[in-house]
Design brief:
With 472 residues, the protein is of the alpha/beta class. It has 21 helices and five strands. Bound molecules: flavin-adenine dinucleotide.
Length: 472
């Protein structure tokens, strides 16, 4: 009997350094590779124009071109994976199903259901660590528990890393053993956008491993400056790799390998950010309740006093706080937002507009090209002070100070709020404080061309402190 394996790719859209694929190829005589457009996920998306779909489609097309060159194919289906995967297993007479583990609660449930179902039919299931560097059982505290504070977690992560020889494995994928399937429904020949009911759109970042590796190479030139430059949005000196790592165009090992190529502060700070990524994945895996609840249970008692009207203005970038508006307009237009600005707008929504962090989190989930439940939830709960190792509740970002500090000449504001571009680099942070002459000179009238601040930061700060203190 021929040993036939099926490798199911999901958020690992690449053919190199792929743990599950390398093992499927190693253990089988024939291996098929499939991607399922999951209707249960796609039907929840609110708009038929979604950059992430185009990003995924481009990534898959690149995979298919590579496979076609080898005489193999990518099997693409649309439907519920709980139905489609068993169907494929039957059709192709598969012996073993291979996939990389996903730590999101709904994905874990889906994988458990499929595993149980197929195991009953005698199919072997193999799942692998690939999406993170260390899983929740690998970096534990003295009581053999998951860390709830980042710094000791990071120290233990680094200690574990240093204690292992040739720790950054590179999984070789012998693609010549991949097989073709006559019902593979080529992405290159069939209009898949139509099948799944989406419309192709432009994206600043184009999906696929070629683009990802090029970006990684380019970032090598800047990584030494990362510690200094990473907080200034207008410099655009972070890697911009988050969408590629989210969709798996790159492996986490590609990222780690680069972070240890140098020994300066730039490299170590970048590695630290990647460790944050692992940390939040572990938290979501170990505490799935964070998807809907505050990590610190007492904060679920907060009575969020903010209004829907303010939430809407925040979404639209019309709050009258230039740094917040610029960041939100950038998100709406591009699907991207710099990390510093994510912290600024999240703090503003929760602690200045007093709106529940879950509303902001959901809005980001709709818009971000790099949307990842673990990182997004971690970032929101950190900003709202409700999360694991979050900032204390009384630490409230002052949007004016943040703006002056991290966008001192207002370059980022000018890019996304062009109506403010003629204000001086001082007034651009507080255009509502300008007098009529200054507004005439700037060709921008506050209240007409740009809104007055929708709330007073100082007044709201007091309310926020009272709101948080009320649960103590
Ligand atoms: C409110 C909020 C929401 C966020 N939502 C997401 C999200 O949905 N998806 C996402 O990938 N990141 C999210 N982040 C984390 C961070 O903002 C982005 O990862 C980063 O801006 C991506 O840009 P980059 O690739 O240039 O990052 P770099 O600065 O180059 O960092 C390298 C990589 O490390 C990882 N990383 C960096 N910072 C963090 C962090 N704080 N938490 C987890 N991983 C990190 C990312 O994979 C990133 O690509 C969020 C942060 C906040 C405060």
């Amino acid at each position: 009997m021929t040993m036939k394996n099926l490798c199911w790719i999901r958020r690992d859209l690449r053919l190199h350094d792929h743990h599950a694929l390398s093992m499927a190829l190693k253990n089988g005589e024939e291996t098929y590779i499939t991607f399922i457009f999951d209707e249960t996920i796609l039907k929840k998306l609110t708009s038929p124009i979604d950059r992430r779909i185009t990003f995924i489609m481009d990534s898959l097309k690149e995979i298919e071109v590579s496979l076609n060159k080898l005489g193999a194919s990518l099997i693409v289906r649309y439907g519920d994976p709980k139905v489609e995967i068993p169907k494929l297993v039957d059709e192709l007479k598969i012996n073993g199903l291979y996939f990389n583990r996903d730590y999101e609660p709904s994905a874990k449930k889906r994988d458990e259901d499929i595993t149980k179902n197929l195991q009953k039919k005698g199919i072997d299931i193999f799942s692998f660590k690939d999406h993170v560097f260390y899983e929740k059982t690998e970096v534990l505290n003295g009581q053999r528990e998951v860390y709830k504070v980042f710094t000791p977690y990071k120290n233990k992560w680094l200690e574990t890393f240093r204690s292992q020889e040739s720790v950054v494995a590179n999984y070789k994928c012998n693609l010549k053993k991949l097989k073709t399937n006559k019902n593979s429904n080529s992405l290159l020949k069939v209009d898949w956008y139509k099948i799944i009911n989406f419309i192709e759109t432009e994206s600043i970042l184009k999906g696929g491993t070629t683009h990802a590796l090029k970006r990684l190479e380019n970032f090598k030139k800047n990584i030494s400056n990362y510690k200094m430059a990473r907080d200034i949005p207008a410099l655009n000196q972070t890697s911009n790799l988050s969408a590629y790592i989210r969709m798996g165009n790159l492996s986490i090992r590609d990222m780690i390998r680069m972070s240890i190529e140098g020994f300066d502060e730039g490299h170590s700070t970048w590695l630290s950010e990647i460790i944050w990524r692992d940390f939040y994945q572990v938290i979501l895996d170990a505490y799935p309740k964070v998807e809907t609840h505050c990590f610190k249970a007492e904060y679920d008692k907060i009575e969020w006093a903010g209004s829907n009207a303010h939430f809407k203005l925040w979404c639209e970038g019309k709050t009258g706080y230039p740094i917040v508006d610029a960041a939100m307009r950038c998100l709406n237009e591009s699907g991207l937002m710099h990390n510093r600005l994510r912290m600024v707008v999240a703090s503003f929504l929760t602690k200045t507009l007093l709106v529940d962090w879950r509303k902001g989190e959901h809005y980001f989930a709709e818009k971000l090209l790099d949307y990842d439940l673990a990182a997004n939830n971690g970032g929101w709960q950190w900003s709202a002070s409700t999360g694991v190792d979050a900032q204390p509740y009384f630490r409230i970002f002052n949007p004016y100070n943040q703006s002056e500090k991290f966008d001192s000449d207002g370059l980022f504001i000018k890019e996304w709020c062009p109506e403010l571009k003629l204000f001086s680099s001082k007034l651009i942070h507080y255009p509502h404080e300008s007098d009529m002459v200054e507004q005439i000179e700037a060709k921008c009238f506050i209240g007409k061309d740009y809104p007055h601040p929708i709330v007073s930061y100082k007044g709201q700060k007091e309310k926020a402190l009272a709101m948080y203190k009320a649960i103590k």
